[in-house]
Every structure is written in structure tokens, then in C-alpha cells.
Amino acid sequence: MYSKYLIRCGSTGCENPVTHRCGYCGIPLCDAHKRTLVAEKGEEYFCGACYAYISVSGLGKRNIDRHLIPNILVVNSKKCTGCRSCELACSFEHFNEFSYELSAIRVHKIEERARNYPVVCLQCENPPCVEACPEDALVKSEENGLVVFHEDRCTLCEKCIEACPFVAIFLNRERNRIVKCDLCDGDPACVKACAPEALEWIKKYKFGERKKLVLNLNPYRRKK
Amino acid sequence: MLRVDLTKRKTSVEELSPDLFRDYLGGRGINVRYLLEELSPKVDPYAPENILFISAGCLSGTIAPASSRLTVSSKSPETMLYCKTTSGGHFAPELKLAGYDGIIVTGAADAPVYLSIKDDKVEIRDARHLWGHDVRETDSMLKKETGDPKISSLCIGPAGENLVRYSAVMVNIYRCASRCGMGGVMGSKRLKAVVVRGTRSLRVSNPEKFKTIAYEARSSLKEDQDRWYRYFLFGTQRGLVWANEAGFNPTRNFQTGYINDAYKVGGEYIRERYQVRETGCGSCVINCGTYYEMEESPYGEAYSEGPEWETCNSFGARLGCVDTQWLLKANEFANINGLDISSLGNIVGFAMELYEKGIITKKDTDGLELSWGNTRAIMELFKKIVKREGFGKLLGESIITIAKTIGKNALDYAIHVKGLGLTSCDSRLTKAYALAFAVNPRGGDHLHTEIICQFGATPEHVDIAKRVSESSDGARPLSVEGKAKMVKYHEDYVCASDSLGICFFHSLSSHRVTPEIMAKLFEYATGIPMSVGQLEKAGERILTMERIFNIREGMDREDDTLPLRMFEEEIPDGPSKGLTITREELESMLVEYYKLHGWDAEKGIPLKETLKALSIESFSKFL
What we know:
Chain A is an alpha+beta fold. Chain A has helices at about 50-55, 65, 85-95, 130, 160-165, 190-195, 205-215, and strands spanning about 20, 30, 35-40, 40-45, 70-75, 105-110, 115-120, 140, 145-150, 170, 175-180, 200. Residues about 1-10, about 55-70 and about 205-224 of chain A have low confidence and may be disordered.
């Protein structure tokens, strides 16, 4: 049922034998679904959702030199309590209305196990959505690395939604429009609304600092 | 407002006038107003004539701090009086975003049904295949059936189906509107679940100002890290060890206030070993929820949200157990079967004391050895209660019925007010709670007035306590001075806070979302002018109407009292040794309290002038 959201997340909806476990959340993964990152201590495997967070957060080798974005939104799904304040804050900031369906950040919840996965556009390096868009409505900005959405050019072909590996571009059927994160011009409303600090806005980050921030989780966390 | 008639299987929508919101604010207020108007007096709570109200707070679905409280109201099968019980979770915001302020459920279906709401589309569907399944299974079956994993569900477990008189309504699986047996009311209507998904949007009348005020309130709570960060880390149960050291951790059915090794059922210990996640309700800032996973234990695997303060005490000291693993298993069991943990702990503790005193024997208990701390036997008993088998059939009733059926002097050991078991705070130590428990319209419960400032934990709280009680003894829990004023202040604003949908942890307990902020939030959200005075008056109006409801059901001043044990027995040992509350102390507080409310001091009935001042004269016919 959740395969729609945890699209690369291993065993959900996938029948292949499990060969690895996600190095971040521990979900079992098959060969086809694992995502590989080359870290300092060798290869590590992650599920799609965790891969998304970790790869932009600077854990992966490939980001060290190449990352263009000076400021970055970090999502730590382990800290997320699932209060969904970020969703309401996002729609209020952009539309002056409260709605979960008008929000560019969505929290996918597995209520039974109290797991919450905030999903938001990660402003990818080589955005598949930009490649997929036939109308140039999505453009990767040279200046600040943002993936900018131009509503006037959009024809609602939904190709970007299919292309996004993280399902982080949303379609509001009632208004017939695409909703996509624009990082609120450098002052994200979701971060302001996030009480447990699962969302963080980091300015001019350096690789080392970032790594510490992401790994240094709650000191009281359960140790295995 | 969505009206659902289960007998005819019809639904309709009716508009609410802005005047209603001005006078009753929302959720809890509107519920009691409808309840007084539509419910005929003295109906059986389990009869189809009883009406169930499920309402979202007025500010639910917005970014206002923790504005996600849901109020469930009806006539209680446990106390036979008024009942309101609130829950967090995501049901209230979803309901608001689907375009409804609340649901009124009347009649009873002939076969199990569930209600599915997606914006305009409201359906009453067959739920025969869901009947008998526990809360977790029901929720995942509903998600599969509707094909939408983002729905919010509200359902009952097997306890509610079997009409246990203290069964809970479970919201989003682990959140619950537990007290007073609302699950039983749903069970009697054969309404297994309500699922809701809202895809619309909600506008406020003054977005700019609303944004400023809401964010200010949120950041002031966030800055109050000293206190609230601990709630985030450990949950409400973090205070349990402290309460034990202060001697008001009710132990062995309130026989004493101290138990050895209480740390094992405290928040810190559980966090270190079993806690995996922190959780929060919609729009929350504090996020006091916790979630644990226990892989191996003598009792098997367990995972659930909680345990909270009430659980840690009800399944811990109150039953004489300090077994963490058992606590976690029992918490999961109560959650997925939809039981009210406080009442369950209270009633089982009561049965265990009767067993200790020799009033009941193994013959009555189906051979179960109900000695303090006998975890295996207690678990067996829990299972019997859910299924209503053998001894569990009797224990599934309310505490007064149980005591009367057992006879002898069993009633002397029942710890209850108006038929509802006391929550985990010994009222012999805290005089403000003693009064609050005695006058609470739904019975002995702290959620009527959470008077945390009486403990004077911070200089800020001392100031508030002194200001509110108009006495230098305000922040001293043992003094009765000014406590009636404190109770009145808190209950008025708790009524307002509940009606707005704001969790009182944020409002009256932390004093960060002050009445001024609440009034402004309401004004900017609805466009109806609101001052602090009007807000207080609305709170008072709601409370007075709850009182009128109870008086109509036959409650009198004699019911505003405490359990016998509180008056007659001093705490025998521990740090709080020798403390007690006298009848005179309670009486003096009660008289002051009635006068403050403008009620008759001798009968406890609202005076005509008071009703007129609150502009609810039309309800005087019920007195």
C-alpha cells in the first residue's frame, strides 16, 4: 500500500529476495531496490527515501565537490513527530489557506509503527523532472541551484510527477495545478513551524559540519 | 455540521450560525448546547435515543499551537451523567478540511457499519467484516479498503463492541478519547469506525495577523525549553519519579503514595531501553507522545505509542507492579482493544484490594490470585474484561455497580467521584486538585482543570498562582487559601481552550498560549470580535450548561465530593506521611467555588441571575 510513497524502499510491493538492509532506517532491501553511496568507509546501501536525505546531506562522496546549493533544507525523518505543522505552514505561506493538499511538503505516515517521512523537493543536481518537462516549466537555476517552477508554462502533463524518484512534486486536482517547493525565497515556512527540528535550514554549509549535524541525532536514542 | 441517522441510514448537513460560535466557541461548547437541546432526560446511554457528538475545535486545521483537539460528547454509560472526552491526533484537522465542524450521530444501526467521509462524499458502509478486529487491524483494513493511506480513523476495539462501560474511542490508532466509556456508546450504535479525509482548504478572516500571533505563540513555547523539551524527550511519564519522591504516586489503590523502584515505570528508564520515536498530534509544538518497541520479553513482543503518565501509574504503582516489560505489554493490550487505561487500572486495583481485604475470594475471581503485583493474573483478568467472561463480565461495569453487586462494605474501597475512577494524583496532597476532582462534571478527572501552577515549579508559575488565587499561598498545594479562585479561573479557560481545540498543555498548563492569545486567535480566524472577558464568559457558560445537564440527570450537591478514603485515612507512609484532607476543608472550598460561579451555595444549582447574565435563561426550565 505504501509502495507509492516508499517507491525505492525495498520489500514493500517487491517480491525479490532481500540482500541488504538500509543503513539508515533498517528496512530490508533487494538487489534491485538498494541505492548505493560511496562513503568514507566503503559502499553503503540505503532505501530510496533515506538515500534522498543522505545524498543531499553530504554523506555521499558524490556531493562533496559538486553540490551547487549554498543553503540547504535538511530533513531528518527520525526526528519527525508527524505533527504536520509544516504542511499547514507551507500552504498558508503560499496561498493564505490551510490545506494539506496545497502543500509542497508532505508527511507520509505509517501510523501503526509511528514512522513519519517528510517528503519535499530536494533540488536535485541533475533533476529528472527538468529533463522530463516538455514545456520548460521546470528549470534548474544556474544562480542558486533551485529547481524553479514556472506555472504559466505548465500544461499539467504530469510527466514531472512520474519522473521524480522521490514523489516530491504534487498535483492538486481541485485547483488543477502543480505544487512544488520553492524554499520560500530562502526562508522556509516549514522550518519555522517545525518544533522538533526535523527540518533544518542550513546556510552556507561546509561538508564536515553537515555530516556532524545529520549524524548527531538525539543523545537519548535507543542504541542497538 | 454533519448529521448522521444510523437507524434510517441517512445523512444531512446543517449550517451553524456565527452567533453559536460567538457564544460557545466550538467543539466542546457546541456539543453541550446540542446535547441539552436534543437529548431527552434520563435516557439509557446504550439506547438508540442517546446521541453521540464528535466535534473538532474551532481552530482545528490551522497552524495555531496544538489546535487539533477533538471533543466527543454524549451521556456517559460509566457515570450516567454528562460526558466530554477529548483526543488529539489528526482526526479534527481532517474533519475541518473536509468541510465539517462536527458529526452528530443519532439512532442505532441494525448491523455493524462504519462512516466514510471524503469531503462531500459521505457514506455509511457495511462493517461486518471489521467487527471483532482490534484497533490496529481495523485501521489497516480501512486503509486498504478505502485505498487511501492518508485517511484519519476513529474506531473502537473489541472492548467497545462488548459494551465495556469504560471503553475508549481510539483516534489514529494510538490516540484516544478514553474516559467515560464513549467506545461503549459507539458500540451500542454499532458504529465501528469513522474515517475522514479532507482535501479542501480552510481560510481565516485575517491571515496576516493570525500568522503573527500564531507564530509568536509557537516560538514562545519552543523557547520554554527547560520544561517542555523534557516532555518531548520522555513524554508525560517523565514526571512520575518526581511524583513518587513527593509522595503522590497513588499506590495499591490509593492506600499510600510511594512505591519502591518507581523509576522502572518512569519515562527516563523507558526511553533509555525501549523508546524509538517521539510523536505529536496535529500542529503540536510540545510533542509529548512517545512510541516504543519491545522485541523480547517474558510477555512477548509489543509496540505502541505511550505509555503516558496515567498508564505508568494505573498499570504500575496502583496495581503494585513495577515491571517495565509488563507495563509496555499491558499498554499495548489496552490500546489495541480500546480500553480506558485510567478506569481499567482503577477498577482492577479496586478488585485487588477487595481480594486483599478478603471481601472477594478466589471463588469470585475464577481462581485468579489477585495479589499486588501478580502480573500474569492481571493480564488474564484484562482479557476476561474485554471478552466479558466470568469475573470480567462484572468488572466491565462501572465501579459503583461492581461495588453494589459485591455488597458488604465494598463501596468504601471504591476510589471514584460520580462513578468515574480518580486519575493518578493523590488529592490529599493537592487541595486544588481535590476541589477540581469533586466538582468536575464528568467525575474525578484532572482534565477538567490542569492546575500545574499550584506547584510553583517556575518563578513564572508562582506569579500566576499568586495572581489568580489573590493569595500569597497560591503556589502551595497544601493550603486551601484561594484554591477555589484558581479552580474557577482554570476551568473557565480550559472550557474555552477545549472549545477552540487548543491542547491545554499549551494553554493553561504552560501558560504560554494565554487567554489574550486565545481570544486574538479566535478573532482573527473567525472574524467575530472576542475579548478576554467574553472568552471567560463563554467558558463559564459552557461549564454552567454542563452543570445544568447533570442536574437534569439527577445529580445533586452530595455528588460533589471525594472518595471516602481521602477523608478517613491519612497517608500511612512515604514522604507524604500523615497528610489528609478534611471534610471541612473541602466544604469551605466548595462554598467559595459555588459563590464565584453564581450558583446556590447550599444546593449547587445555578441561580436565575447567573443564567440571565450568561444569556442562557431558556435553559432554566431544566433545573
